[in-house]
Amino acid sequence: MDEKLPIRSSPANGKAQLRMAQAIEGDVLTTTLVQQRAIAAILRATDDILESHIKKAKQGSYQHAKFLFDFAGLPSAQTQSAPEQESLASILLKRLEVDDAG
Fold it and tell me: Which residues, 6+ apart, have CB-to-CB distance to 13 below 8 Å?
């Protein structure tokens, strides 16, 4: 069920909300409507967003590059796993067992 969103007015956002209310023209402002409009705006801006991320990645931004690889479903660089080492807890437990036996 959609939650009805009240249109509030304040000095900072009153004009923007008035324009939004006028644009709706009688439609009930619901979370679904807001989500649909947000999705549409994001989809319209997708090319610009991706171009911006690519530019930042080329400048050396790891976060932007990782996002692009993840978004495209490509594997990002993987680190070589170090050979498994025995944990400190395991070593200490073995030494304690030796001390108890001896």
Answer: none
Task: Tell me the C-alpha distance between 41 and 35, whole Å.
Answer: 10
Q: What value does the mean pLDDT take over residues 18-26?
A: 56
- Tell me the torsion sign for CA atoms 6, 7, 13, 14: negative
Chain segment 33-84, per-residue pLDDT in tens: 889 999 999 999 999 999 999 999 999 999 999 999 999 998 876 655 666 7
Indicate the domain borders of the chain.
1-76
Q: Give the global pTM.
A: 0.46
Burial annotation 1-28 (CB, 10 A radius, 16+ → b, else e): eeeeeeeeeeeeeeeebeeeeeeeeeee
On whether the CB atoms of residues 74 and 65 are closer than 8 A, the answer is no
**CB 64, CB 53: distance < 8 Å:** yes
